[in-house]
Amino acid sequence: MNIILFGPPGAGKGTQSKYLVDKLNNFQVSTGDILREEIKKNSDIGQQIRTNMNEGKFVSDEIVNALIKKLIDDPLKKNKLIFDGYPRSLSQAQYLDLLLDKSNQKVDHIFFLNVNKDIIIERIEKRKIIENRSDDNTDTILKRYDTYMETTRPVLDYYSKNPNFQEINGTQEIDQITKEIDAFINV
Ligand code: AMP
Fold first, then answer.
1. Across the chain, what does the average pLDDT equal?
2. What pLDDT, on the 0 to 100 scale, is given for residue 123?
């Protein structure tokens, strides 16, 4: 089963994707984590990624799509993908459809975790203390939220027409969100 978790930064995608990975024995595809790993390698691309991330901007589709392609082409992960933070732009969503189609896969569920800006800011301020991420400061959070609204909103319009799309109130308790996701995947 392939699942997309979709929503603004701090919506709880990471938490729910970890739950689904354990439950379904799937693989998490967190482009944020993959990009942070690239930064650690200190390559030229890594430095470019670091600059984009710390400014709250998106990393280029070219870089992100190349990293994603490797995962979708991996036969061990076929139909076992939980997407967390990808796709984030319309061109990424279209590219994902193309890649999945080519490898005879599809998206079984798209969950949109809907959370408003004030709660996002509150949550990311708390996460900063726990995870110490360099892009979790107030200015960058606001920029990330605005980038999300500008670039990712068209992805929401694109997916909301899909019969497998479900909107979930992401301001609820973690367990309640998990329960609602469980009811939809019905496994
Ligand atoms: P996240 O860990 O998902 O909050 O992502 C952290 C940062 O990584 C984002 O603010 C972007 O700079 C970058 N990033 C993660 N996923 C993507 C993506 N699919 N496309 C472009 N940039 C991304």
1. 93
2. 85
- Give the per-residue pLDDT at 125: 84
Two tokens at 174? 């973690």
Cβ count within 10 A of residue 155: 23
Q: Whose CA is nearest to atom 5 of ligand 1?
A: 32
53 lines ligand 1 (CB under 6 A): yes
Query: Does 9 fall in a domain?
Result: yes
Domain that holds residue 75: 3-182
Ligand 1 lined by 59 (C-beta under 6 Å): yes
In the predicted model, what is the mean pLDDT of residues 132-145? 84
pTM, two decimals, is 0.91
Q: What is the CATH number of the domain that holds 123?
A: 3.40.50.300
In the reported structure, the alpha carbon of residue 85 is separated from the centroid of ligand 1 by a whole-number distance in angstroms of 6
Cβ(111) to ligand 1 under 6 A? no
Euclidean distance between CA atoms 32 and 105, whole angstroms: 23
Q: What is the pLDDT of residue 146?
A: 86
Predicted local distance difference test score (pLDDT) of residue 151: 85
Please work out whether the CB of residue 39 comes within 6 Å of at least one atom of ligand 1. no
Look at the chain and report how many structural domains it folds into: 1
**Index of the ligand 1 atom closest to the CA of residue 85:** 3
31 lines ligand 1 (CB under 6 A): yes
| Helix spans in the chain (H) | 13-24, 31-40, 44-54, 61-72, 90-102, 117-131, 138-147, 153-160, 174-185
